[in-house]
Write a structure and sequence with these properties.
Layout lengths: L3 H13 L12 H20 L2 H5 L2 E9 L4 E4 H16 L3 E14 L3 E14 L5 E14 L2 E12 L2 H7 L1
């Protein structure tokens, strides 16, 4: 019986569709502007090594999903592993940068699902910046007037051709 539940749900959605929430095919402009500001803040915190600011972009119960690692775990664990890089950036021992490009943006005033790529680079000393684009998805909610990421799904590496095409 439990194996049939996904099939029954699929048949129901196929037959009756999803509830009409008055959505258009164009994302809500205000929310997209706010989401652009959210991603700009994420980029700023990475570039400045602002660990507290970066951590504040996540909901306390957020989850990181890593396709390459085959794992899912609380963002608090991921943040603990990333903290040294932020500290090194803040101290000038390292330069870090992240850019975002989106291929699909689904949102309303209080929820968002963002699909695209991010390109994180890090540089220590006089070395060349190291990094590459990565496909990702993010699920966000707006609470108290602020967007918070509740799920970050880091997927497969992206090619430079895909990155350029998304620009």
């Amino acid at each position: 019986m439990y194996r049939l539940l996904p099939l029954i749900a699929l048949l129901f959605v196929s037959a009756f569709g999803l509830p009409d929430r008055g959505q258009s095919e164009v994302p809500v402009v205000g929310a997209t502007d706010e989401l652009d500001a959210f991603w700009a803040e994420v980029s700023r915190t990475v570039a400045e090594g602002d660990f507290e600011g970066y951590a504040a972009t996540y909901h306390p119960d957020a989850v990181l999903v890593s396709q390459s690692g085959g794992v899912s775990y609380p963002i608090a664990e991921a943040l603990a592993g990333w903290k040294q890089g932020f500290d090194d950036t803040a101290a000038g021992k390292m330069k870090a940068h992240v850019d975002f490009r989106f291929t699909q943006r689904l949102n309303d005033e209080n929820t968002a699902h963002e699909t695209g790529m991010f390109y994180y680079t890090a540089q220590t000393g006089d070395g060349e910046p190291q990094g590459s684009p990565l496909h990702f998805q993010a699920l966000l909610v707006k609470q108290g007037g602020q967007w918070k990421m509740v799920m970050e799904y880091q997927m497969t590496p992206a090619t430079m051709e895909k990155w350029d095409a998304a620009g």
